[in-house]
């Protein structure tokens, strides 16, 4: 039970699969389980009967004022979306690692949690392991002296995944422990990976970190290893410690007072016998979830909050970028010259980029996206999950295309365009499934700085004027003036917006920047000099 002496929060567990079932069991034992949700109705019914709780849809959970928090144990690609919806509904959130799949999304979640005054906790389980807690106490107390090197091995045969590589599956816990022990972020990260079972999914990775204080660390992970190994080794000037989670409790944490002494101007090991450090056995997950409940009750500060999740994510993201660069083909032939132009961009392992494409420097293309042949994407763009571009599409610099958007042939995005989640572009005015109408594709041009809200629809053959703003859900059927604010079905102009994206008042002054606008003789808005 929670240590606060009061009734614990009521928690909905989202995802009852391989790991989620453990959350269900522990929250039930802690007296906090309210309901369970799972995309598999039969699995949800199974847990409903076993734990005697309801199985509402996720949307119902969000609307239920009697549910205080959600615990998310769904596939990693969905973590950010579920967490965002829960925070928006005023719920506390526990989310399994990783908190999101890119730093920008994680920072947005963390900001949202702080603004809402809600707990956002990331499931970095081993920070709640009694042996690691004791190890950190030894480090803080100076028992090992000045830290020099930390290394972690997390190895096994299976479980092999395809939705994420070994780095994202195994390494987050170890990175979290290392950052906690050092108490700082690395100033350099490098990584190498090996691809044995799939050309785009790493099976073995080694990540190296160097810290400002001179400490170094590496994390070696693999799911192609002959035996299970879960070992963290911490080396200091005055001693060394080993946390081996595969051993019995009395042997999980060992201290070695080895030292290096100088004899005849040569470094010489001064070895000592290993000393078992007493640790009180406890299930780490139970400790972790009890801590989450205490944080909700205001009786504890979250040990692995959103900020900690972001620090871990930065290391993972830097590691993956290094691995992907290493795996980029260096011998691209004339049939696929675009690959030579991708070295300075980030393309997730599940994304596909066809031949004869140009991807600009600093652009990031995320999970399950597809860039079709002969398409050009500018610099510093972000393509979210499940985005389709092309063929023969041109996208400018600094564009952001959110999840589930398709940019078809005939559509051009100029610089700085924002496409909200699931917005829709059409390319034929009267499509029929049984008729081929590619010769009727109509060009659509989205001018610089345009914002298109979530689920909006843009009919083909029109132009969206620069810095116009299309509200969520609007259906645009005709050309849009520059700076126009459009809403409704069909969309009608309901005002003006400035460069900053704020609606202008009757005085045509931006409320954020104070910039003055005016209407010209053609009824078009323009900024005053």
Describe this structure in words.
By secondary structure, the chain is α/β, with parallel strands linked by helices. It contains 9 helices and 39 strands. The strands form 8 sheets. A 9-stranded mixed beta sheet has the order 16-19-22-25-28-31-34-36-37. Strands 7-8-9-6-10-11-12-15 form an 8-stranded mixed beta sheet. Strand 11 and strand 12 form a beta hairpin. The longest helix is centred in the middle third of the chain and has 22 residues, at 306-327. Residues 329-341 have low confidence and may be disordered.
Give the SSE map.
Layout: E1 11-14, H1 20-29, E2 33-37, H2 41-51, H3 58-63, E3 69-72, H4 79-88, E4 92-96, H5 103-116, E5 120-123, H6 130-140, E6 147-157, H7 166-182, E7 188-194, E8 204-210, E9 216-222, E10 224-236, E11 240-244, E12 253-256, E13 259-263, E14 266-270, E15 274-276, H8 284-296, H9 306-327, E16 346-347, E17 352-353, E18 358-359, E19 364-365, E20 370-371, E21 376-377, E22 382-383, E23 388-389, E24 394-395, E25 400-401, E26 406-407, E27 411-413, E28 418-419, E29 424-425, E30 444-446, E31 451-452, E32 457-458, E33 463-464, E34 469-470, E35 475-476, E36 484-487, E37 492-496, E38 517-519, E39 525-527
